[in-house]
From TrEMBL:
Keywords: Iron, Metal-binding, Oxygen transport, Transport. It comes from the Bacteria. This is Hemerythrin (Two domain). Residues 17-129, 155-266 form the Hemerythrin-like domain. SUPFAM superfamilies: Hemerythrin-like. It comes from Halarcobacter bivalviorum. The lineage of its organism: Bacteria, Pseudomonadati, Campylobacterota, Epsilonproteobacteria, Campylobacterales. GO terms for molecular function: metal ion binding; oxygen carrier activity. InterPro entries: Haemerythrin_Fe_BS (IPR016131), Hemerythrin (IPR050669), Hemerythrin-like (IPR012312), Hemerythrin-like_sf (IPR035938), Hemerythrin_metal-bd (IPR012827). PROSITE patterns: HEMERYTHRINS (PS00550).
């Protein structure tokens, strides 16, 4: 349920798409509330209807999103469409098998879809649309450490702030002379510090017996791999593409990872202390 609380950081800056995301959150919340109860056979019918409603609205929303991406010549449209297709298939399979599933199985599959779409898809894919449309000067102005990013574990917050400080250096390089090389040097520092931070964070998670350590480690691995590829390819990118890609990878590897995953660590600590 906590995952289905709408947050301003989910906005991509397109009125219709953001409103459709909010409506999807509301439909998913209703479905999750029903599937989380010990449902009787009498209660299964409304659950089926809500999941069907979710499927229909997701399909409509994806069409809206794809039309918008096409209208702005979004370069990752083909990849985005494939992700949409995968998510539609998850819901299709759930609906076609729903009569043979136990309530616990429906709950598990619904959880998978919520995490795959409402969380991961919005923050890693839909946010790319916003970054693509935002002028680089506006990205520079808005980028940086904010109190909203605190997870309230001192060493984690201090290291996150250091990561932002390093990344901000790359955004603030305005000289044309050797600009790419200077950005690449800063990215290498960011890569090195990020690896150290992730190792320390995982050691801390082991210490507190964090149950999602394996998944969190996989998230760290993906971020490191993405950053490795970005550093490798940065020398061949045009200047405007380089800066937009820098904004995208920092937004996903720092901002969204902190908001969605690192905060779960401190939520786990609070749960253990209650």
């Amino acid at each position: 349920m906590e995952a289905l609380i709408w947050k301003t950081e989910y906005n991509i800056g397109h009125f219709k798409i953001d409103n459709e995301h909010k409506k999807l959150f509301n439909i998913a919340k209703k479905a999750y509330q029903l599937s989380s109860t010990k449902a009787t056979s009498f209660e299964m019918e409304p659950l089926k209807e809500i999941i069907k409603e979710l499927f229909q609205y997701v399909s409509t929303h994806f069409m809206t999103e794809e039309e918008y991406m096409s209208s702005i010549n979004y370069p990752y449209l083909a990849k985005h469409k494939l992700i949409h297709k995968k998510l539609i298939n998850i819901l299709k399979e759930m609906i076609s098998n729903i009569n043979s599933l136990e309530i616990e199985e429906i709950n598990s599959k619904l959880n998978e879809f919520i995490n795959e779409y409402f969380i991961t898809h919005i923050i890693t894919e839909d946010k790319k649309i916003k970054l693509f449309k935002t002028p680089i000067e506006d990205l520079r102005k808005s980028f940086g450490w904010k109190k909203d990013y605190l997870v309230h574990e001192k060493f984690i917050d201090e290291e996150h702030k250091e990561l932002f400080d390093i990344a901000t250096e790359a955004f603030n390089i305005t000289q044309n002379e050797n600009k790419k090389e200077k950005i690449k040097d800063i990215l290498n520092r960011l890569y090195s510090y990020m690896k150290t931070h992730f190792q320390r964070e995982e050691e801390f998670m082991k210490k507190i017996n964090y149950p999602k350590l394996k998944y969190h480690h996989a998230c760290h691995e993906k971020i490191i791999n993405d950053l490795t590829l970005f550093v490798r390819d940065s020398s061949f990118m045009q200047q405007n593409v380089l800066e937009k890609e820098l904004a995208r990878i920092i937004d996903i590897s720092l901002v969204q990872h902190i908001i969605q995953e690192d905060r779960k660590i401190t939520s786990w600590i609070k749960l253990c202390n209650n």
